[in-house]
Fold this protein.
Amino acid sequence: MSETLHFLSMPNAPVDAADVLVLPVPLERTVSFKPGTALAPAAILKTTDQLEFFEEDAGWSPFKHMTISVLPEFADNPALPADAWHDALSRHVAALPKQNLFTALGGEHSLTPSLVAGRMTEPGTVLFLDAHGDLRSSYEGSKYSHACPVYRLLEQGHQVVMAGIRSVFESEVELIDREPRITLFMDWDLNGQGQWNAFLDKVRSLNGPLYLSIDMDVFSPSLVTGVGTPQPGGFSWYQMIETLEALFSRPGIDLRGVDLVELVPEPTRVSEMVAAKLLQKIISFWGKARGFDRKPQTGSQLQVEYD
Ligand SMILES: [Mn+2]
């Protein structure tokens, strides 16, 4: 039995009453370079103890107005073949209440299509922030590899807006060129070629059902060293904040889910802190976009005794 995890030391609200759900998914089956992502969900949540309740960018304390529940982890089951395990994950998240912000902490990136399948059954858009193309149809014999999630998302009928990409395979480039459902912002185009504002305009324009997938390797490895497959280049912290502000600039945003994946805890704990704070920002910005700041103060923070 795994330990009970919490966000910022707050008690876990009943699942049906929670405004925010956090699902730990410590999946690690197909990692090809640096191992350790199975340890990430617990490491990130323990690091949330170091956050303040006040969120300085949106200027409020989200959990005065919102409740949160960290769900029991959805553990890997090595006895199950990959397709059966991923189907079980999809059914698990599909059965969760829908009127909330659903977030998941990985674990490797192969879990994203299974989460999307459970939360976004109609065609929608996935904003996919990653250093890598992740577009292989299969990798090392598995279509459930961390190298394949975008291919799976296209199979499910979604559009994919990719950004931060700085490592692709030749056949991935060919697929991107001929696939109209992919919008691609290469990292160099964003950071060196003046496409940053065009990217933010694209993010602001996203409408309808949305899903946000953040591979922690989208960040510069000078900020986040703890990832399975690091790449030079990448997002700064403030570029990520700008991206989130653009995404949540639409009031009432129909965001079906968010995942933070591929983190590998490391001794400095900086990478975990970046992930913990990123999760807090996403929760805060979503809450403001959905008008929770105008709701009564009956949130999870009020159940914490602190001085
Ligand atoms: Mn990835």
